[in-house]
Amino acid sequence: MRARDGSPISGPPVISGELKGTIMQLPLEKTISAKLMTAEYEWHELTVRMRHSPDDALAVRMDLFAAEADPPAATWVFGRDLLATGLILPTGEGDVRVRPHGEDETDVELISGPSWCVVRMASTHVRDMVARTRSAQECWNDKAQAELDRVLTEILSSGIRNADS
């Protein structure tokens, strides 16, 4: 590709400014005390860590800890929108289902083959996480859009022509 003056353009435009490094600044994490009901209908206390990263903006990761000092016993990945909708009404097909439990709690049902469990958390914590992921995504989208506009303006103002022209 060449600029209007005939000089070659070396490589793609460089993304810089405020957008550069933003991905590393935006991962979100929230630790929540929860209850877990096993397939044997026994309840256990556990800690849940919910994570969200712009690198996988449509997903939420939920780490389940039997003890806080230990590594997660399991990590489940599912749609952020599934979690948001489950605050209001039962949703989900397959391995992950989310539903309100009364007015103050949210159940996340996890199914793996014949095994299953229900993680019950305070809805206020889940709602907070969903709101924070949306705020982070909106911030990321705004910055990405501004940077894209800048790059396109740079490309178009340099008069790039099709190689066949």
Description:
This protein is α+β, with helices and mostly antiparallel strands. It has a single domain, classed as Roll (Transcriptional Co-activator pc4, Chain A). Helix content is 28%, strand content 33%. The chain is built from 3 helices and 7 strands. A hairpin with a 6-residue loop joins strand 2 (43-52) and strand 3. Helix 2 (80-86) packs antiparallel against helix 3 (123-157). The longest helix has 35 residues, at 123-157. The protein is elongated.
How many H/I helices? 3
What name is given to the CATH topology? Transcriptional Co-activator pc4, Chain A
**How much β-strand is present in the residues?**
25-35%
What is the H/E order?
A: HEEEEHEEEH
CATH homologous superfamily heading: Sporulation-specific cell division protein SsgB
CATH first level: which class? Answer: Mainly Beta
- CATH architectural type: Roll
Mean pLDDT: 80
Fraction of residues in helix? 25-40%
Give the structural class. Answer: alpha+beta
Order the strands across the largest sheet as they lie in space.
4-3-2-1-7-6-5
The main pleated sheet reads as:
7 strands, antiparallel
**How many structurally independent domains?**
1
User: Cα-atom Rg, whole angstroms?
Assistant: 22 Å
